[in-house]
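User: Assemble these into one structure.

Assistant: Restating your components, then the assembled model:
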Amino acid sequence: MKRNLITLVISAVLVVIFALLLFVFQVRQSEVAVVTTFGKPVATYTNAGAYFKLPWPVQKVYKFDQRVQNFEDKFSENYTADSVTLLSSVYIGWKISDGRRFLLTIRNGSIADAQLKLEGMLRSAKNAVIGKHQLADFVNSDAQQLKFEAIEKEIEQTVQDELSTNNIGVRVEFLGFKKIGLPDNVTQTVFDRMKSERQKFISQYDSEGNAEAQKIRSAAEREAAETLARADAQAQNIRAAGEAEAAKTFTVFQQNPELANFLLRIDALQKSFSQKSTVILDERMPPFDLFTQLPGATKQSGAANPAK
Amino acid sequence: MERNNQKNGLVNLTAAILVFIAAFAVTVFSNSAAGQAASVFLGIGVLVAFASWFQMRLEENERLEKLEVEDMARAKGESALFESKESELFAARRSREQFEKFFIPGFAVLLFLLEAGGAALLWRWIDRIPHAIAPDRAMSSLSLFAIFALILFVLGRFSVTIARLGDHRLLRPGSSFLLAGAYVCFLAALGIAGVKADFIHADVWAARIFCGLLGVMAVEILLTLLLEIYRPRVKGRVARPLYDSRVIGILAQPESLFTTAAQTLDYQFGFKVSETWFFQVLKQNLPLLLLAQFAVLVLSTSFVFVDPGEQAVLERFGRPLATLDSGAHLKLPWPLDKVYRYRTDQIQTFVVGYVPDAQSENANVILWSTAHAKEENFLVGNRAVTTVQGDAGTTLKAPPVSLITISIPVQFQITDVRAWAYQNTDPAGLLQNLATRAVVQFLAGQDLGDVLSHARLVAAQQLQSRIQAAADDRRLGVKILFVGLQDIHPPVSVAADYERVVGAEQQMIAKTNNAVADAIRTNTLSGALAFSATNIAEAFRIQRQTAAAARVALFTNQIPAFEAAPSVYQSRMRIAAIVEATKNSRKYILLTTNTQDVIWLNLEDTIASQMLNATVPSE
């Protein structure tokens, strides 16, 4: 009896679980559910909760995530209005706006399939919109000239129009540029130009350095010459002043001009002899005349021949 | 009876071989992953069926040999019999013993290698190879696998029943494999049916289950081999073949779970474990225990433990009911209530502009001219429009843009977990896109020179506010904590030229400094020369003035002396002057006899050289 009761309880629990699995399904806050009866969509549930359904194969539930889906397209090349090839990649946020249409138009309600379709539309829209704009609308050192957001809006609107026309139950929520760039060969030219700009600066700094150095040296030399010239002039003045002061004393010599001249000659005599001069003197010249007054001194024996 | 077993074994072997070949062919035909895995399983079954059949034959030969020897003993008498060597009399028994001693362990090792290797290789192979069952071949493949399942089930069930009723231990391994093979083929057929019903992964899931089964079998046979070493050998006790899988036995006959378990324990411990009270209680209350376990399992889903730094959203029937903070919480059991966890308090980080790699993260020096991560080039404005000479002399038009490399880490925190969870499928990816877009747009509106210099100071703040605004606009429920301009520099291939400019600028400064140094030297020297010249002049002036004053003073003092004795004074002065003036001179005094001054000069070569400098006195 006890075994039977246990068996009954287990069976009842299992039956309840299987019944719940077969007849009830949950829809999350983030989901939209479409119920089909023998393949025909009969109801759409967008509010979260538990709902009744008939078991498979009578009814089948398709659940889709109704949150914003986010994907980015390939980094692809487009031609701008001013004939520049621009690579760009955009991200797009989209969501399922009509679960029933989504199920009917997208195979198996596959998100991947929907994104493939969106990518095709996006690529076409991107080509059309980028071709209408110049590169300066995308990249401009003057931020006021940028048309970044306007271009994004144009692409978004084009995709949205396409979606509305096809009515696949999808709505674009937002779109933005993820990346913009240039093809490799153009990138190389940009690199070359950037290098040439740097080379320009190198030459400029080199020349400016040389020129500045030359200017500084010239100015210094000029200043030095000026200083020396001023100093020379000042020195001359000082000397002249000295001479003038000395000349003032000449009046004193006028008291006895004979003595003054005599002293001048004496002074000149002293200054006129250099260290290693040779002097030939007459014996009559004082004080050497003393030689002639020596007792027994003869002129012959006392004479000296300097050449011998 | 034994002969019938041998026939059954042969039938099992034949059926296993045929179904294996057919299943492999169908697998190739349908490209089914589950079929591949099932073929491996069936192939192992063929080996087991062959081994068991061969061992049956050996035992049958031994039995016949024994009868023959007994007949001979009765005919010739015991004495004659024991004269022969035992090895000559019981050759079949020795063959059987040799087979059990060497072949079976070796075969068990082979099975282990095949099962373990098969499981591992198949698992990896399933990941690599795209499996797409051709729609037009799915139905026929499904039907064929179902037929294989039916054939194997009928044969396997029959053999298993015979083996169990007759306790034919050697018939059991092959029979169990046949019956398990039937279920495997059935599951393979279900996998293909699943694919047909648009459950595209059903085939792969079935293949994964087979891989798991092979793995379990490998573990089992390894354990059996290890336990066989320590098993007590009871004399007269017949050993269970090592290749007889209990897992396959349970799979083939789930109802025999307890029987198998009991046999295993009895076999391993050498006494009747299955007759102990514990085992009996366990056997009688198994459903209740299972129910209790199920209840515990359900009950365990009623507790939620949210980790530190996390928040969880509690959903009841899919509706958000509450936000749970860190700690323990109660909820209704799964699937009524479900909990989704998010790292809210923890600061999360992503980077814009580069993909970090371990090597560059460990580098101690980061240079512009060396790529330190997988860097991306961003377009930035350039005021100058220039053309560049191409390689072949062609003029390439370079767009008025420049390229720049950046590294921007962005740190954020989830502030509204419900907004984070319910607005976007991939909020983290969206936030990264929004941040990247903000960076791209910011750089596109800047001049390269500005970005590298003063604009970078405000860039971080601008970017942070832009990213925050974009996140708020998309209702992401995050707070941007930090946007760091970790690195902004020209691309690697241009960076060296930028460094050379810095070098040139430094050289320019050096040249200027050298010139200034020269100027300072020149000016200082000239100042010194000027100072010197004026000082010399000043000294001259002073000397002149002083000398003049001294002369005047001397002269004034000499006048009285001169006036007192003019001739004496003059003579004294003259002689003193001559003495003083000529004290260092060589002197020649000429003594003459006439009154006329005649100077005779010998100008021959012998004249002393200094004579040439002789000064002729005026008087």
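Residues 184-247 of chain A form the longest helix (64 residues).
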